[in-house]
Design brief:
The structure holds two protein chains of two kinds.
Chain A: H1 3-12, H2 15-34, H3 40-48, H4 52-63, H5 68-79, H6 81-93, H7 98-106, H8 110-121, H9 130-155, H10 169-182, H11 186-201, H12 209-240
Helix pairs in contact in A: 1-9, 2-4, 2-9, 2-10, 3-9, 4-5, 8-9, 11-12
Chain B: H1 4-27, H2 36-42, H3 45-59, H4 72-87, H5 90-108
The chains are: A mainly alpha, B mainly alpha.
């Protein structure tokens, strides 16, 4: 793959999730102005912060006049899961110049991680062209997120009930599309079951903390089962030998 | 609502922490070698994180557990899940899930 092909590939594999994401940006933009914020606020947030769930949470905090340090701390907790993504993707960016890494870090959203990850796993993307595909995905989502925010701001007064249509379901369907491709071994199934159950039980915790804890438990469960399997297999091997 | 100056400071602060979280490991990527156990764990990040994000949306669309067949979020998700498991084709999974969701939402309204 040349770098342009890789970029186009990255954008292309992002398309399903971009469609799933369409409503989020619009809902965000319309929600912000319907709360009485000036249009530049949601637009600036999408331009500079580029983190959907944190932006939604911040809208709620602004509405009740939350002090800035709490807003920043909440943003930190809500986005902490991105640290897991960056730990995973470190190996694909470590040979790049710092400016490249900064751009790719800025664009490391749930969506870009989810869209490109399967292709790093199956070997279609590697460190020679992977960062171009990654960049293509970032550019695609960034453009989409900012355009839909503006559309939402403009449409805010026109379609006030839009946030209740359930358009966000497309995101759930997209993530399920990715999750199900992984469910091939018992370790992944257990990881899935533990993360899912824990997310429901811990849902009441503030600031997406429940989601973060559930994800960590899911990861732990997957690794535990993988190790258990490895150990069982070695014991079997010993018996045969 | 906060005034303009504090809004600017809020957004700036949000930018700093969000970018900081995403960049801190990348910035040191050429110097850090992750231990093997951590590398292994990272393989489970996509499934665990994405599942933890969507489960509450599926099972508690109105903030409390709703296991009834009147819950279009659950119906659409189950359809997507089954199709995903059988065919392992993300696009098909999305399409079926979305169609089932909107159909059941329309019929149950």
């Amino acid at each position: 793959m040349t770098k342009w092909e890789a970029m186009r590939f990255g954008a292309l594999v992002s398309v399903p999730m971009m469609l799933g994401n369409l409503p989020f940006g619009m809902i965000f933009g319309s929600l912000a102005v319907s709360q009485g914020l000036d249009p530049w606020v949601p637009i600036a947030m999408s331009l500079f912060v580029f983190a959907g769930s944190a932006q939604f949470v911040a809208l709620g905090l602004f509405a009740v006049g939350t002090p800035i340090l709490i807003v920043i701390f909440t943003t930190f907790i809500v986005n902490l899961r991105h640290l897991l993504y960056s730990a995973d993707y470190m190996k694909y960016v470590k040979h790049l110049p710092m400016s490249w890494r900064a751009v790719l870090a800025f664009g490391l959203t749930d969506e870009t991680y989810a869209a490109t990850k399967p292709y790093f796993v199956n070997g279609k993307l590697d460190e020679t062209t992977g960062h171009w595909a990654y960049l293509g995905s970032v550019v695609a989502f960034y453009t989409m997120w900012n355009l839909t925010t503006i559309i939402g701001v403009l449409a805010g007064e026109l379609i006030p009930g839009m946030s209740e249509w359930g358009l966000e379901f497309a995101m759930v369907a997209t993530f399920l599309g990715i999750i199900t491709t992984y469910l091939r071994t018992s370790a992944y199934w257990i990881s899935f079951a533990v993360a899912g159950t824990a997310a429901l039980f811990l849902y009441q915790l503030p600031n997406n903390l429940g989601m973060l804890l559930a994800a960590l438990l899911g990861v732990l469960a997957g690794v535990a089962v993988q190790h258990l399997h490895a150990r069982l297999n070695t014991t079997k091997g010993d018996q045969h030998a | 609502m906060p005034d303009t100056f504090s809004l600017i400071m809020n957004i700036f602060g949000m930018f700093v922490v969000t970018f900081g979280i995403r960049f801190v490991l990348y910035a040191r990527a050429h110097r850090i070698q992750l231990p093997i156990w951590l590398e292994e764990s990272l393989a489970y990040v996509p499934v665990a994180v994405l599942t933890a994000i969507i489960m509450p949306m599926m099972f508690m669309p109105n903030k409390q557990l709703d296991l009834s067949w009147h819950n279009p979020w659950l119906l659409g998700s189950l359809a997507a899940f089954v199709i995903g498991l059988i065919f392992k084709k993300p696009l098909l999974t999305i399409a079926v899930g979305v169609v089932v969701f909107f159909t059941s939402q329309f019929l149950l309204a």
